[in-house]
């Protein structure tokens, strides 16, 4: 049997924007021929990416530039995991108008955590204002294409 590349998306979403983004990612990764598992932050331990080839986090930002509560433990523990040999990517949703100074800061915090794991960044972090519009969907396509060939 041919071993397929497994991509795992862990996401947190309070009002649905990031969930929608995670669904778009799932669809596009599948279209690229990958196996995909999409998991809510509440259901994920920090070792969730152990059996994945591609590790993706999709997060909104809460408080003043903070990781959402339901992602806090996961985020803290992620940096202690060893994910060398794996590819990672991060997508953020935030509010560019109301929170310009901390726009999608949680995505940057996840990028830093992934860097500590030894995983390789497969594509630049995508930051989306609220929900994904057509231009964002195009950026997500590029993100997926780059991860798939990284
Ligand atoms: C209390 C509160 C604090 C927020 N703080 C930030 C922030 O610091 N930076 C940011 O980019 N967005 C911030 N946001 C906006 C959300 O991240 C944004 O609406 C996001 O699209 C929500 O995603 P979701 O629909 O997946 O829950 C905040 C929203 C709330 C309600």
From TrEMBL:
Taxonomic superkingdom: Bacteria
Single GO term (MF): oxidoreductase activity, acting on NAD(P)H
InterPro entries linked to this entry: Flavdoxin-like (IPR001094), Flavodoxin (IPR050619), Flavodoxin/NO_synth (IPR008254), Flavoprotein-like_sf (IPR029039)
Pfam families tied to this protein: Flavodoxin_1
UniProt domain Flavodoxin-like: residue ranges: 7-148
Cofactor dependency: FMN
Record key words, sorted: Electron transport, Flavoprotein, FMN, Transport
SUPFAM superfamilies: Flavoproteins
Family: Belongs to the flavodoxin family.
Protein function: Low-potential electron donor to a number of redox enzymes.
Protein name: Flavodoxin
Source species of the chain: Loigolactobacillus bifermentans DSM 20003
